[in-house]
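Why does residue order matter? Because the sequence determines the fold. Keep that principle in mind as you read this record.
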Amino acid sequence: MAPNNLINEKSPYLLQHAHNPVDWHAWSDETFELARRQNKPVFLSIGYATCHWCHVMEKESFEDETTAGHLNDTFVCIKVDREERPDIDAVYMAVCQMLTGSGGWPLNLFLTPDKKPFFAATYIPKNNRYGQAGLIELCLQVKKLWESQVDKVHSSATSIAAGLDRAFSFTAANEPGESLLDHAYDLIWQNFDSRYGGFEGAPKFPTPHRLLFLLRCYHRTGEAKALNMVEKTLTAMRLGGIWDHVGFGFHRYATDAQWLLPHFEKMLYDQALIAQTYLETYQVTQDALYARTAQEIFTYVLRDMTSAEGAFYSAEDADSEGEEGKYYVWHLDEFQRVLNGEQAAKWEKIFNLQPEGNFADEATRKKTGANILHLDRHLAQSATEFNLAPAELVTQWENARQKLYAHRQKRIHPLKDDKILVDWNGLMIAALSQGARILNKPEYAQAAEKSAQFILTRMQAEDGRLYHRFREGELAVEAQAADYAFLINGLLNLYQATFNLSYAEEAVALQEKMLADFWDPDRGGFFSTANESEALPVRPKELYDGAMPSANSVSLLNLLWLSRLTGDPRWDDKARTQLRAFAGSVKAQPTAFTYFLLGVDFALRPGQEVVIAGDPDKADARQMLEALNLNFAPHKVALVKSDQNAERLAKFAGFTDGLQLAKGKATAHICKGFACKEPTSDVQDMVDRLLGKK
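Structure:
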């Protein structure tokens, strides 16, 4: 098949469609001008490289000559990678939700040549099915409408476009108080699955920011149920099939309530956000399982998802050889060949393998002989059954796991989406930085630094503007609010891990740039796109915390953090404006904005600024920093003042001027509202003060 116009693109998703018989075009002004010249509507199809149902629709319709013929005859056809253009996806996903009550990918729309939508759907079958119009039938209907009733089409499109403003409008109110946090907690508790962990039923998503919120509820109130919800969920996820027991990392979500059958794609942002959740839970509980899970996530990311230059790739596909999950599942005879004899029998039992398979195919509801490794209980808890010490069983599994992993590597690997996105890299920078602090593993900070340096040197223009995507040497797409917000958050976390002031200074510079280019001076909050960005039917402004938190939610936390790090009241003023701008909407549906609630919680707590005066390379200062990192103190920000950076730090955070070592020892100055109490050189005294025990 001769290639279409997508052959010259860099997006792995667009390149997947470069040999379709559909005459695909990339999104551009030229493409819409073509639609105007030809007087054709636009077929817009949005997806991403690791989307299973996108693959299904491609194979069924976009690789089919007949369907392609109808599409080419009726439309000018445009493919968009939602990960490259989240602004386009946000606008048209809002249309789909407005018209159909739901959304997802692939996302398919019909547009007028001026970008206004008049039809939206997710997956569309090739032919009519179960009362749903097929793609061929829709093409015939649209062609007839466009030729005979085009005025009605334009009128409908104009009405739909007008309604889009409501999708990105939010209600202001007074700053929220603790009652909002209590209300959100009650709603989360009502939706908790006490049997299997997680929330609601199938499909079941990890929802890491909901768990992060619950950890803060526990910290604030001491409510044991809050911590129980977190631990039940994280344990069930780790034991379930959503966790890759052989190669590590979490799959996207589970199709069932028990966490057994996942959609097998692995996304960078999931690894980052879930790792942060396990790390914070480890801080609270000191349970080694949570630390180990975070470490194994990082093992996966650093092994499989890291470029030679240290930036992080985006995702790995669910499908290989045209079949979802084929790379990850095991037939019993293959499993037995790799782990022969008694060893195989033991692990078959522990990981619940069955000759007929241990799960039903999502589509056919029949077992296929394939097995997903999963546990009914902690691995160490199975030791007595085999008359082994728990540590010995864990060691034996590691040996077996390595054999399985080596064998699995011989299979045809799913597609790796190797584009580098600033926002997702920012999330992983934050996660690795937290891992470095909490687990005392400086190698994680070094990995985070490599990614940060790549972005700041290869994906930033001379005027400070960021680009969103890098692949095969090409920069593309102006950065959006999420790129700035997530990178700022990553750099702030990286400063907390390294105390290299350059990262905090860069975070401030990026926040200034974000304010200049994205801030809404009329209603507050950040638009998703910059002031000079391409005009879409509406300029989106997002708040919903879905698979990833919104740029506005992350920015709220960033602004509050910057306020406490620097002592500059401007940042607090902006944060308070943001709180008020969205308060009404958040109060109406708090569980939709749980990352935003992390900022609310932070804003309501007295600030804790800890300044360690001392040399961070010396033992006394290191002991203080390690003690700070061991304990869960989500409202703390830390700075390190040394002889080498004192003057520079005073310019960055004026309140640190005059804070000195006491009697030549590393000294902790614990400040609240930038009023610093009597310093201490005693590590336990510092911790007790920080935790409110003194």
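The chain has 25 helices and 21 strands.
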